[in-house]
Write a structure and sequence with these properties.
Elements: H1 2-6, E1 18-20, H2 21-33, H3 42-56, H4 61-72, H5 81-87, H6 95-109, H7 118-123, H8 144-158, H9 169-178, H10 189-196, H11 199-206, H12 209-218, E2 222-224, H13 227-242, H14 251-265, H15 270-282, H16 292-295, H17 303-320, H18 329-334, H19 356-370, H20 382-394, H21 400-409
Antiparallel strand pairs: 1-2
Helix pairs in contact: 2-12, 3-4, 3-8, 3-12, 4-8, 9-10, 13-15, 14-15, 14-19, 14-21, 19-20
Length: 410
């Protein structure tokens, strides 16, 4: 039987029963901002400012957690780098962009049923206190979390990375204070003024201490986190990755489905199948840093462009590996371009170091990619795709037994 030949124990390690929710959100925040130097770490800096304001307001632990988590992914609805740049303008925010990305972000986050309040916080995070907003909500009808994120977002947008930060404090405080009662909740301005007097607050923003502070705070967010919760996060990530191009609009979900099907046919239990599916949804996380023009290029990639593409699986591994408790999911997800003969990328891992989960993901990714339209070619037929995969097996690149399972399932 195939399962006996493949040794079930070599599949890998399942995720832990408890995880830090903050780890997932900090990693997702990093992925959303990475690749564009103008917004690098924007969301994490906003989350740090939110955390400081929440502490001064003495918010309860649960409310603070909800607001900081929302801050980490508040711009999840922004798709392109051009729109990210527009969103950084200080007090000339594009109203159409503000409305569209708030609504899109809220719709995405609504999938996270274990954090039901995040969607509403993100929906209103660009609402001005005095009104004129897209749904006529104003004043204290705007959720407190949205008001705090809006203030923190505009504070961060004013910081000029090219100038010494303490030389900017007076002008930033002046600009923010001038918008009290119009853009911002007037009750929050004295809180910010008190915070702004602390040099440490500004220096933490400049010296990247905010990352350490957020992770320290995140230790308080460890909670029971089942596979359903993790799959909801992974589904959101897959949507973010695949929305970049119509040619990859279902790639991650397709890889996840095929990988779970292979795992089922190999006899792995429902939890193992689900974990493999989650890895499939995460597998192209690193593509969030690849420029759209390369992903959607119609012609053959140049050597330089291909080298840029190669970094995506490296960053998938590095980002997922920061999340404590994911078990073997980082390896399953990130090693999908590794090959048994060691010729894959980016780690050049050979068959002795590739567990069954990683081998399943490699076959699933190749098959799904071959049967999708791409800018430079039409999708291959299933029979042609299988032929290509079998050729790769004969070259010592893919696992024969897993290919047999795939063929039997088609």
């Amino acid at each position: 039987m195939l399962q006996e030949d493949l040794k079930t124990s070599s599949l890998g390690v399942l995720p832990a029963a408890k995880m830090k929710v903050s780890d997932l959100f900090i990693t997702l925040s990093s992925a959303l901002d990475m690749g564009n130097i103008e917004v690098l770490d924007h969301s994490r800096r906003v989350a740090y400012i939110v955390l400081e304001i929440a502490d001064l307001l003495n918010l309860n632990k649960e409310l603070k957690k909800q607001i900081v988590l929302a801050a980490l992914i508040h711009d999840i609805g922004i798709i392109t780098y051009n729109d990210k740049h527009k969103a950084q303008t200080i007090f000339e925010v594009d109203e159409d962009l503000a409305e569209s990305h708030c609504k899109r972000g809220a719709d995405l986050v609504r999938q996270l049923e274990f954090l039901p309040n995040l969607s509403k916080i993100i929906l209103f995070h660009h609402h001005r206190w005095s009104g004129g907003n897209f749904n006529n909500v104003k004043g204290d009808k705007i959720p407190l979390g949205s008001r705090i994120i809006h203030l923190a977002d505009r504070i961060e947008a004013q910081i000029n990375p090219d100038y010494y930060i303490l030389h900017q404090v007076d002008s930033i405080v002046e600009e923010i204070t001038a918008k009290s009662g119009t853009w911002f909740d007037p009750a929050l301005i004295p809180v910010f003024s008190l915070l702004a007097k602390k040099e440490s607050f500004w220096l933490n923003l400049k010296s990247e201490q905010y990352n350490i502070i957020l992770r320290k705070w995140g230790k308080e967010t460890r909670t029971r986190f089942n596979l359903t919760d993790l799959e909801q996060v992974a589904s959101v990530v897959a949507h973010l990755i695949d929305r970049v191009s119509p040619f990859t609009s279902r790639h991650s979900s397709g890889v996840a489905m095929i990988a779970a099907m292979i795992a089922a046919d190999l006899g792995y239990n429902s939890k193992e199948q689900r974990a493999i599916r989650i890895a499939g949804l995460f597998h192209d996380l690193g593509k969030l840093i690849i420029p759209n023009e390369i992903i959607e290029k119609e012609g053959e990639l140049t050597k330089g462009e291909y080298q840029i593409i190669k970094q995506h699986s490296f960053y998938t591994y590095r980002m997922l590996n920061r999340i404590e408790g994911l078990g073997s999911i980082p390896e399953w997800a990130a090693f999908h371009h590794e090959r048994l003969d060691g010729t894959g990328y980016p780690f050049h891992i050979g068959e002795k170091c590739l567990n069954i989960g990683s081998r399943i993901m490699a076959v699933s990714d190749v098959f799904q990619a071959l049967t999708e339209d791409r800018p430079y070619r039409k999708a291959f037929t299933i029979s042609h795709a299988v032929q290509i995969i079998e050729d790769m097996e004969r070259q010592g690149k893919l696992d024969l037994d897993i290919i047999k399972v795939l063929k039997n399932a088609l």
